[in-house]
Automatic annotation (TrEMBL):
Keyword Cell division belongs to the record: no
High-level lineage: Eukaryota, Sar, Alveolata, Ciliophora, Intramacronucleata
Keyword set, alphabetical order: Secreted, Signal
Name of the protein described by the UniProt record: VWFA domain-containing protein
Highest taxon, organism lineage: Eukaryota
Cited InterPro entries: HMCN1-like_VWA, Thr-specific_kinase-like, VWF_A, vWFA_dom_sf
Cell compartments where the protein resides: Secreted
Span of domain VWFA: 3-213
Length: 224
């Protein structure tokens, strides 16, 4: 089983990305399933805006194998809101922690963060437009990511770079999750390639990890 979590900024500037995702998610998953054998895929979607957007700051759809449900749900969402430039990314990952992940120890978690702005807090960016620039606890994002990293041993995170404003935040995230992928600067039409490649890579790397663990177990048993 592969659990795919899409975490996406849904403020106004992200409209082209939202529209591309709703148009291509089914194609992305179909192409991936045709390229590998023996895997099932479940997809969850979390959209976030900002703290000031009240009840609409977080929207989500839990894991489903019916990709058309996700596609239909995303199509009904609106990219809007946002006050300052920084956004409430951390709340999205806090919500992700509550999803019903597969309990299979060999299952894979593949998460995509699609964001054109950093989270709140002066440690995560060098922009001026952050109403909470000096009000966020030290390492508050890293603490949440540390919990997220513990969900599975096969845990892969891909951050889709849209501009340079997220660079500092991405590097701090990578310090917590060393296997995290940070793409080069991308456009909406690149989503099919980025997501498809990352899914295939997650399968390859999880097989390598399993082989390494099995080899270590054999060495340990031989020493006994």
């Amino acid at each position: 089983m592969i659990d795919v979590v899409i975490v996406m900024d849904l403020t106004g500037s992200m409209r082209p990305w939202k529209e591309t995702m709703q148009q291509t998610i089914a194609k992305i998953i179909d192409q991936f399933l045709n390229s590998v054998n023996g895997y099932q895929v479940r997809v969850a979607f979390i959209g976030y805006r900002d703290i000031w957007d009240n009840e609409e700051k977080l929207v989500y759809w839990s894991f489903t194998k019916k990709i058309d449900e996700i596609q239909d749900y995303i199509s009904k969402l609106e990219a809007k809101g946002g006050d300052d430039e920084a956004e409430d990314i951390v709340s999205a990952f806090e919500l992700a922690l509550k999803l019903d992940f597969s309990h299979n120890p060999d299952s894979i978690l593949c998460t995509f963060l699609i964001a054109d702005a950093p989270c709140h807090g002066g440690d995560y960016h060098n922009i001026e437009s952050d109403n909470l620039i000096d009000k966020m606890p030290k390492n508050y994002f890293e603490d949440v990511l540390e919990k997220y990293k513990q969900i599975k041993k096969n845990n892969f995170l891909c951050c889709v770079k849209i501009n340079n404003r997220t660079d500092i935040m991405f590097q701090k995230m990578k310090a917590v999750m060393p296997l995290m992928i940070i793409t080069s600067e991308k456009k909406p039409e690149d989503l099919i390639e980025v997501v498809g490649f990352t899914l295939r890579m997650s399968v390859t790397e999880s097989k390598k990890l399993k082989s390494q663990i099995n080899n270590k177990n054999l060495i340990f048993q031989s020493r006994i």
